[in-house]
């Protein structure tokens, strides 16, 4: 029988993946807390677009309000539940779908941060799978409308990574990879935790800075002191991850060790890392509309994931005696911007960088 799929959180990433799975003929139901978004999807379909005309499509989808999820009890059980909500919503979203899972059904964390442990605490480790959207930049910019703001993947770097918490390639991971492959490049990984921490490094370098400064994704690299602060964030995150024992993957297009050395003042490494960051910023692989998710949250007046991203790095570093002062400073700045105590502006991180210990 075809798998029954639920996507809890049909926002930028969940909606993009769920919409394309529907387009490909899979049995998918999208569940979301934004009433206008659900009603618009029902009435007019889910509109998906990207950087090319070929990526534009409108997909008729099945969509449920949170209050309608109970209707799943009258249907066949869910085999695969993608949880694609903000990290602070992970527990309730997992609880919401748990009772509708098939006996061998699984929950896939399709999220920015490291939430597998939270999910496993509700459904068990054996029913928890990780999926990383390593290079998927997208924006839910209006009800039913999702645009991808970065180019589709190629052979050098898979956009999606899917893995088991124990690191073996199982039948279900292979099947998930097979389902996702027509959407974009995908890898079934034996290194879920290393992949997760590497993506955390990428997000830690960009998301909070966008929220704190108001800058778009491309502009983050074009302001010299902001770029240097981003590198400092990346290097700290790499060192914490290494100390935790993770086998790190490339941080975007950066070698982890080169990034850490650049953050620590190695002139050759710094020159290389800065050149790579600027090259991506000027290459056109990201739309001028691209804005990291936390920057989107700040503009929309929503709570950010700063505690679950940069704050998570600070907490993990503290637990092993490895300080992450740049991340701690950024957490403080973003929370002050969230509370309306200061405006989002580049000077926020420029001033913080000047006060960091060398």
Rg (C-alpha, Å): 20 Å
Q: What characteristic shape results from the CA principal axes?
A: globular
Which strand-content bin applies to the residues?
Answer: 15-25%
Order of helices and strands: EHEHEEEEHEHEEEEHEHHHHHHHH
Largest sheet: 8 strands, mixed
Give the CA-CA distance, first to last residue.
Answer: 59 Å
Task: State the helicity in percent bands.
Answer: 40-55%
Count of helical regions: 13
Record field, number of beta strands:
12
Q: Which blocks of ≥5 consecutive residues have pLDDT under 50?
A: none
Give average pLDDT, whole number: 93
Blueprint (SSEs and pairs):
Elements: E1 4-8, H1 12-23, E2 27-32, H2 35-44, E3 46-49, E4 57-59, E5 62-65, E6 78-83, H3 90-98, E7 101-110, H4 116-123, E8 128-133, E9 138-142, E10 145-148, E11 160-164, H5 171-180, E12 186-189, H6 192-213, H7 224-243, H8 256-263, H9 267-283, H10 293-299, H11 310-319, H12 325-338, H13 347-354
